[in-house]
Design a protein that fits this description.
By secondary structure, this protein is largely without helices or strands. Helix content is 0%, strand content 7%.
Length: 54
């Protein structure tokens, strides 16, 4: 994930060829509460971002 100047994060993932359905399921792993506000999902031709890269 890339942190944006406004504090939000941006992730880009590669969608395999032949994919017919995508499910977006924001969630939290472990105890606690999470709130999502203004969540946006959109298609882009930008290359995928490796979330493990630093």
């Amino acid at each position: 994930m890339a942190r944006q100047s406004d504090g939000s994060t941006l992730s880009t993932v590669k969608i395999p060829p032949g994919t017919s359905q995508i499910v977006v399921a924001p969630q939290i792993y472990g105890p606690g509460t999470v709130w999502f506000d203004d969540l946006t999902v959109e298609y882009t031709d930008a290359p995928a971002i490796d979330p493990t890269a630093r």
